[in-house]
Design brief:
With 295 residues, this protein is of the alpha/beta class. It has a domain of 159 residues: P-loop containing nucleotide triphosphate hydrolases (Rossmann fold), CATH 3.40.50.300. Helix content is 36%, strand content 22%. It is built from 9 helices and 10 strands. The strands form 2 sheets. Strands 6-7-8-3-9-10 form a 6-stranded mixed β-sheet, with helices on both faces. Strand 1 and strand 2 form a beta hairpin. It is globular. The N and C termini lie far apart (57 Å). The structure holds adenosine-5'-triphosphate and magnesium ion (MG). Magnesium ion (MG) binds next to helix 2.
Length: 295
């Protein structure tokens, strides 16, 4: 019997969505009163799916990601990760995280920071060193392996955190503005790498960003959130096939999707840009959400 139920549980975990969020509200108690950060969040992310969260500053994106990662608890509602509770998934290290602050250990070198999840999982020293070398090469930090975090720029620290989050090829990545501190060239290179890694490992990703083009380029679906309390306003499915090549960045369909997300953010109102239809002309429109914030 035990054997059968274990098999059933394993099958459940295999067929389960990567993330399921059901009826989640979050209210913070502060000295100056209650802050309603999230209201009525319903979201599921399939295994292997790339979902971005976008919305004005303070709309609860980081809070939602932290709840999925079990770093914070919902006030009501529940979260499952691969069919398990968020807490169990954290204990089982089912996901990798790369958050707004790099969160590196200052007393460890770059290489030792990247090696940490491998050490925690008892990976042998030689295999660990090989994997760390591979990851540092991928994020372009091979020469900095023996430096300490405070000797690196903010963007370099973020790349260390990204390498660390990928160390164990997790089936789920939770990323909060991981490319925010990177220059445009490095950012595009990291986006391309992330797409490649997801295709190779079949990882699902929940990705917070303020950049509409970044969300469109990376995602299968873009979740557009509205401010105070944070709600899901619209979920926009990217109709870009599976092709994520460099030429997509100049493709008409890409600009059409950018316009669709932009209009969803403005609640169906294309805003002050004066451009309502999709097309190459949108390329020069400022599409960064911070610039389009409504408070
Ligand atoms: N620990 C906390 N205590 C009290 N209020 C909090 C706490 N964490 C977040 N908040 C509040 O919850 C709301 C959502 O914050 P959150 O950090 O999730 O926003 P965000 O969408 O990630 O914003 P940004 O784009 O600026 O990163 C904000 O009003 C914030 O002030
Ligand atoms: Mg945030």
């Amino acid at each position: 019997m035990t054997h059968i139920s274990q098999t059933a549980a394993a099958a459940d975990a295999v067929t389960a969505d990567a993330v399921t969020v059901v009826g989640v509200d979050k209210t913070f108690e502060t000295r100056s009163g209650q802050v309603r950060a999230l209201q009525g969040i319903e979201l599921s992310v399939k295994a292997g799916e790339f979902v971005s969260l976008i919305g004005p500053s303070g709309c609860g994106k980081s809070t939602l990601l932290r709840i999925i990662a079990d770093l914070d608890q919902p006030s009501t509602g529940r979260v499952a990760v691969f069919g398990k509770s968020a807490g169990q998934a954290r204990l089982d290290q089912d996901y990798g995280i790369a958050f707004q602050q790099a969160g590196l250990l200052p007393w460890r070198t770059v290489a030792a920071n990247v090696a940490l999840p491998l050490e925690l999982h008892g990976v042998a020293a030689a295999a660990r060193a090989a994997r760390v070398a591979e990851l540092l090469d991928m994020v372009g930090l091979t020469e900095f392996a023996d430096r300490y975090p405070d000797q690196l720029s903010g963007g370099m620290q973020q790349r260390v955190a990204i390498a660390r989050s990928l160390a164990e090829n997790p089936k789920l990545l939770l990323m909060d503005e991981p490319f925010g501190a990177l220059d445009e060239m490095t950012r595009e290179r990291m986006q391309t790498e992330l797409v490649r890694i997801c295709a190779e490992t079949g990882a699902a990703v929940v990705f917070v960003t303020h950049s509409i083009p970044e969300a469109v380029y990376l995602s299968d679906r873009v979740v557009v959130m509205s401010a105070r309390p944070g709600r899901i306003q619209e979920i926009v499915t990217m109709r870009l096939d599976d092709e994520r090549t460099e030429s997509l960045r100049e493709d008409t369909r890409y600009f059409e999707m950018i316009t669709a997300v932009r209009e969803a953010l403005h609640g169906g109102n294309p805003g002050t840009g004066g451009i309502q239809t999709a097309g190459l002309g949108t390329a020069s429109v400022p599409v960064n959400v911070r610039g389009a914030e409504t408070r």
